Amino acid sequence: MWGSRDRDRTQVTCIACGEEVPRTAAREYDKHGDRWDRADKEFEFLCKECHSGLCHQPRGDLETTLVESGAGERDREAFLRRYTELATGEVEETESEHERER
To answer: What is the pTM of this model?
Structure first.
């Protein structure tokens, strides 16, 4: 009656496993945790298998801490050092020192 929802043949890449899947076979993922506010937002995607393997419990400020730690932007050592500082509340460097490290 309304037509097929399978018209969108867009392929997306799962951010967990790297598999390329049809958009219709993927689940939206919003790293900021607000998937209902869709204005000006670009979503990342998970394949159904990776999505089903996720813990669907609230994660508090995990995504915020990961972003502030430089996840995916810094080398592993710098990321882990910054994440540990933020997670334990033992932040010793100033913001300008943090920016220089990037």
So the answer is: 0.48
